[in-house]
Amino acid sequence: MWWAEVQKPDGGLDLVSLALAATERYVASYSMPIPGVYAARIRARGETMYGMAFEREQTLTAVAIPGGDHWSPDDPTPDVLCELLDCLRRSGALGPEAVRRLEALGVNVGALLKCLDGKCRSRREGIKPIEGVPTSPAIASTSVEQLAEALAKRLKP
User: Fold this and answer.
1) Is residue 72 a part of any domain in this protein?
2) Do residues 7 and 59 share a domain?
3) pLDDT for res 99
4) Does residue 60 share a domain with residue 86?
5) How many domains does the chain have?
6) Given 3-state DSSP classes, what are the helix, strand and coil percentages for the chain, each rounded to the nearest 5?
7) pLDDT tens digits for the chain (157 residues)?
């Protein structure tokens, strides 16, 4: 007999029966609709082939987050950093003075934009162009390098 005692984030407890699958493993489906940490105490009780009783247990944890079961790098759901990068590009909010101040703090703005671009590349479509920087449905990293060069030229005295 195999079962799990699942402690839910809201303090509730569920008992879940595990069934022997074709893979010779015990399995069960369990929905986690409440965000948070779930602790599952997996228990087994039975007899060995020699008729000796045994009992075993192991505790495992899992974390549930909204949308965590639907993630994809090409998922159209907004990502805060990618949205910020797009906003900075579209609005011109990252002006020469802001770049100068960031670089004075030790931030390599060109490298930062390139890093963000690499993480957000598959999410962007239809971004409005920035003067002097070519765009396409998915901006290539060379465009970010060109953006960094254009910013650097504006910062030179």
Assistant:
1) no
2) yes
3) 78
4) no
5) 2
6) 30, 25, 40
7) 899 999 999 999 999 999 998 888 888 989 888 889 999 999 999 999 999 999 999 999 998 888 776 666 665 555 666 777 777 767 777 777 777 888 888 888 777 777 776 666 544 444 444 444 334 333 334 445 555 666 666 666 5
Query: Tokens standing for 140?
Result: 């290539």
d(CA 79, CA 154): 29
Sheet hosting strand 13-17, strand order edge to edge: 13-17, 2-7, 36-47, 53-64
CA separation for the pair 126, 135 (Å, rounded) = 9
In one-letter notation, the amino acid at residue 47 is: E
The residue range of the domain holding 28 is 2-64
Give yes or no: residues 86 and 146 share one domain. Answer: yes
Alpha helices, DSSP H, located in 58-133: 80-91, 96-104, 109-120
Residues in CB range of 102: below 8 A, 6 or more apart: 109
Residue 102 shares a structural domain with residue 136? yes
- 69 part of a folded domain: no
In this prediction the pTM is: 0.44
The verdict on 145 and 89 lying in the same domain is: yes
- Here the tokens at position 89 are 């590009």
Per the CB < 8 A criterion, the answer to whether 146 and 131 are in contact is: no
- Whether 75 maps to a domain, the answer reads no
